[in-house]
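Researcher: Here's a chain I'd like modeled. Treat it as a single chain, no partners, no ligands.
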Amino acid sequence: MKHLIAVLITAGLCSAQVAVSAARVIEAPVIDGVPDEAVWNLSVPVTEDFIQHRPHCGEPMSEETTVMVVYDERNIYFAFTMKDSCPERFVRMVAPRDHDFSSEWVGIWLDTFNDDNNAYFFFVNVDNVQQDGRLCAVSGWDQNWDGVWSSATAVSDPGWTAEFAIPFADLRYSREPEQLWGVNFKRTITRTNESGFLFRMEDSGDIRIEDFGDLCGLSNLPSNRTIELRPYGAGHIRYLPDGDDEWDPWMNAGIDAKVGLSSQLLLDLTVNPDFGQVEADPDQVSLSHWETYLSEKRPFFLEGSDMFSMPFNLFYSRRIGSIAPNGEIIPILGGAKLTGSAGGLRVGFLEACTGKVDEGEATLARTTNYVAGRLIEEFGEGTYIGLCATSTDIPESDGEEYVYGRSGALDGQVTFLDHHTINGAIAGTWNSTDSAWDDNLSYRGWYSFENERLDMSCGVYRSEDNFNANMIGYTSATGQVETWADADLYVPFSSSTVFQHWWGGIVGWYDRVPDGPVTAQGISFNTGTVFRNRCHIAFDMGYDGKRTDRYEGPDGTEYEGGMNYGFSCSSDYRKPLHGDLWAGINNYCEGWNRYAGSWMRYRPLPYFTLEADLDWSTTSDARKFDWESGGWGIRDTDWRSAELSANWMFTNELGLRITSQLSRFQLEWDSGYSGREYYHWLNALLSWQFRPGSMFYFMMGENAEPDEVTGDSGDPEFTVYTKLTWFI
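Model: Modeled as a single isolated chain. Structure tokens:
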């Protein structure tokens, strides 16, 4: 009785438009997907028709949803009852964790600091496939964050039910004895194409944390001074066809640890981590002068990566533990990472040390220490001020001099009158290899207006000649001023039975070297529509003006402009067979670049999928500088790639994924010289989460680099790899 009275009093204090209250309980519910335990009777159920944002914005969803919330000393628990008049028409899908859903699902958002800027999200589909991550108004979505939480689902004649148990140890929150969190819930009904929220979001579907409701009733939460350990053991054996046909065995062990310093701060430590790429980086073609920007895949760098998203790309985590000139992965000896909040200040600090790579008597990579830190003070609703810095140090060794690189930046953003935003930043770099410490700054500033129908922005970016963060960051063109302006219009069709919404946009840009040539100028238009059946079609058209490429040839060159055209479409992702298609033609170095591609997925069974990603890109009649012959010529290129994969999920915790890629790049000069390169790789990866947070991997792979003389696929390297990680 005392529990019930306390719940009713707390519910009356809630300020949300719908009362969402959490009740403290002593006995934890059983997470079996069916909320029938007596403990759920202590909650205050919220039974509402969620508000649609698809397909009929603002109208109630056609089926009723009930939400219940309780908590104890360790976890916060959520139970959902989703009524559905046609459960036999559910789209079923068993997939790896964090996979995009194309079935019925329900989700939770938690703004644990109630600051309107940061939120966790936890989703499950009807087959209990989990997805989680974080959303930050400053840095956007972080779907790489992974918590260790439990869920279960069940299907019955009235619909389906779901239960969540989210440990407080996974969350950061304030130290106040009485807590008020922001909260929202989302549900999808696939057969009717409906999705909606308990607290209405914008018609465009954007998640605005400031529009969440209140979750109250939370008090005296644990301080989260917990320790999580993940020791691992790994090994592989590799066949190296280097003429001796030898096998290269390798074994390793290490440990990762998470230390909850408080309910707001988390320390990650790693000793001798295994950062081997379980999945290979896809082979890509680049028509620019700059290296390909690779996505991060390593867990130590992925989690909390939103805090290390720095202005001007001052931090690029793939620099740490990259590839040595001989193709060997540079080992990471250890690392530490601190993330969380100290009062109202968000904190991120990372340090990692890499080891040497030798080949014979030559040192290909020296021991290097990397440091990156960021502080963000948030003031609510997209307003903040931030400070960040990086440092890279390569000590003196083997007769080589001490080398260092430094960078720092100050950035901030002000959001006012709900829809207007001003953002600005300034950064500098200081490297021991620079001949002078001047002209080493970058600046940026932009203004934007955004509401449910119209987005507009304009900005300027200036980088000086000696700005260079490439020791730990990613810097491309410098010494120029870039300006742009764009506008996008979004129009929903609430009364149409065919169209969901239409959009159209325009963007213009003008870049130049101060008191020098124009490096880019142009304008582009795009438009498209989404249909009620979730298919889409889009078109774009633009014009590039005359420009100077400062990096083509020894002295640069001027190119005439030309037109660009593009097209894309996609089918209904709820169907067993669906995909995307794109194609276009662009002016390129006074010639043409033509491209086409498609991505397709076929799901004949809920637990089995086949995927194909096909890409084709050619350039013709392009005026380029031939560095081999030392003169200008006309060059044609042809790039083709096929990436195929199959995924079989035996259970939600056990799956087999087979992935392969075959690519070819061919070039031909008008001088008569031609060349080609073939590349292929194949991985078969078995992954098993044998207990929450504990993983076993077994992989067999083949990789064949192009032959240096003929360009044909060289002799393949074979690898057998296994790893066991135990969560304590």
